[in-house]
Structure formats: structure tokens, C-alpha cells
Design a protein that fits this description.
The chain has 316 residues and is of the alpha/beta class. The chain contains 10 helices and 8 strands. Strands 1-2-4-3-5-6-7-8 form an 8-stranded mixed sheet, sandwiched between helices. The protein starts with 19 loop residues before the first helix and ends with a helix. The model has no long low-confidence stretch (mean pLDDT 96).
Amino acid sequence: MKTNLRHVPHLRSPSWCFNGHVHTIARSLLGDTQQPPLNRIEIATPDNDFLELDCHIQSDSDAIITLFHGLEGSTERYYIVELMKVLINKGYSVVGINFRGCGSKLNNQPRFYHSGETNDYQTVFNWISEKYPNKKIGAVGFSLGGNALVKYLGETGKESLVNTAVAVSVPYDLRLGSIILSKGFHRIYEYRFLRTLRQKLDQKRKRFPKLPQFSGATIYEFDDKVTASLHGFEGAEDYYEQCSARRFIDEINIDTLLIHSKEDPLCPIEAMPLAKINQNPYTDYIISEKGGHVGFWSKPRGWLNFVIENYLSSNL
């Protein structure tokens, strides 16, 4: 049954946040990146690799909220840090996941991470369930991390280890998102992503000389030559088709909130499958008139995290 979202306040933004780019960039540059007290641990993956988790466990909490970052992010990104602090203050335990190669060191396998990597999600949820069997599990995913979260929820259905979830600024159509990144002002974001992806690939090639070479200039080309090759896809088109979140909305079987801005400059609102979301009794959405990609500058501050915490507390 859908949660009543009518009491959620509308996003009010300052006048200088005049489009989605300003929201996205201003929040990224001016957000809080001072992490709360965290315990970093490594957990093993089934393929002899590891994941770095940043944990703040409160013994008297009823639930653990898992947080999944976006492309080339980490638990140090402002949107993870700020949400962690809100959740900890509300009495939740939190576990922030650094995708492979996004923590303090490169992972051990040739592969990286991608928008459809749900095996690592399962590894994290299994670890939490075994170590903290009496705590419920909530999950919040941002951008790429939200796409993979939606895919995990759809793949697992009633067998999901997650009790409730929120996904923010999801690229429901990965192909469309990659094409937009290579156009006009969006190239600023694409350049930033490719710079660190290239660096990691070059570092990793010292250990694995047979890794694909990359000389392209777009995310699409990187996904076609590197991401697809390393993760068993035939190419970028195959990767995008198999992993886009829109394919998995129908099968979600736990209460899930999807948050998006009409002004999102990286993941256009047109890709959001509203008909599917409305048809599924477990999925609901909030679409803000203003806001950017993951970044929502609000008056007063904290609109996004208020909405997320409010939804989690209503469903856990």
C-alpha cells in the first residue's frame, strides 16, 4: 500500500538556484563533507575481492540504513555524509558502501563496478543480516547507486533482504543518460567522470596488463570499450538494455520511494516510467519542480534528507 505523501513539503529554493545545473553544482561544491564517526571495515566478496564499508552502528537502533553512492563517488560525498548525520541523529545505524575501487584503495579483481552490479548489494545485505539479525534494513541509493538498488529490488522481489528503500535521481534509461552527458554544458560532468575512470584504469593496468585500452572521449565509449568488456556485456547497448532501472520497477515488492527533479540535468525526467510506478502498489514517487541531479538546494536547508528520513521512519 502506498504511503501517504501529501504532507511532504514542496521544495522551496533560493532565487539564485535558477536551474538544475546550479542546484547540482552548488550542492556539490558547498555540501558538508565532514564525515561523522565511522568504523571502516572490509568484507569479502564471493569472487575473492572486497568491499569497504563505513559503519556507525548504534546498539539500541531498530534498523540499519545502507547508503549507495553515484558514479565515481564514495561515502565522502556530501549527499552521503549529510544523510548519514541526519539518520544517526534520528537513532538509526548506518552503513555506507564504497563500490569497488571507490574507497581507500583499488580492488583486487580486474573488474570495477557498474549501474547493474547487484551481486555486491546482495553481499552487503547478507553480511548485515548475519551480523545484525535483529535489525531491519533500509536502503538509499543515489544516481548510479539508485539504479542498481532498483534493479536489486526488482530482481529479488519478495525475497529482498531490504525492508524499505529510497532511490534518488535514478538514470532510468542508461543509454539516454550517457548520450546527454556528451552534449553541450553536460560535458563538464562527463569530463570529471572520465578523468577519474581513466586514472583508475591506468593504475589497474599495471597489475592487469590485458585490461582494455581506452582513448575515447565520452562515457558511452568508456562503457562500450571498458565497462561492457570487464563485466560480461556485448557492448554499451547491451549493458544499458540489461541494467536500466526502468526494466525492474514492475517486480519491486517492498515499499520504495523514487525522488526526482524535473530539472535534473543528467537523468531527464522523461525517462522516469511513471505508469509502471503508479501501477505497482509498492512504489511511489516525489517529483520536485526545482532541483538538480542528487543536489536539491532548499530553504530551509535539508529538504531531501527530511523527505528520505520521513519515508524510512514511516515504513520501518
